[in-house]
Amino acid sequence: MRKIFIFLNIVLVLYSCTGKPVYPDVPFDGLKVVINIGGLKDEVPIFYSFRNDRKIINFFVLKIDNEVQSYFDACAKCYPKKMGYRVDRKDVVCRACDIRYSLRSLKEGIGSCYPIVLKGRLEGDKYLIDKEAILEGSKYF
What secondary structure, in 3-state letters, does 99-127 show? Predict the structure, then answer.
């Protein structure tokens, strides 16, 4: 019985933390992603998945002091592991190496494990990200 318990725990640990995260599909009009900023809360990132052919490109959008920012759910160092980030209170934490960054520090962040910036723009109450900008980051996924 004890061997079965140990075996099941090992299987659970090995398989519960693997695999690329998948998030809700992002609103897309065929040319660009369109996100209503009214749904964004300060310092609460929202993760999305963009599907292009067979590739899923993950990213998150974040509002800090009424400024909207977007980042790929990947870093230059750990992207081959395809694990992305998780949120822990006011930080994002790399799932691969467990390095943590304050959400407020992301814009100025320089380092191999900071999330990669995804260019977007604010137009009225919408945050827009061009399809080309998202596809430029496909190599990380």
Answer: CEEEHHHCCCCCCCCCEEECCCEEECCEE
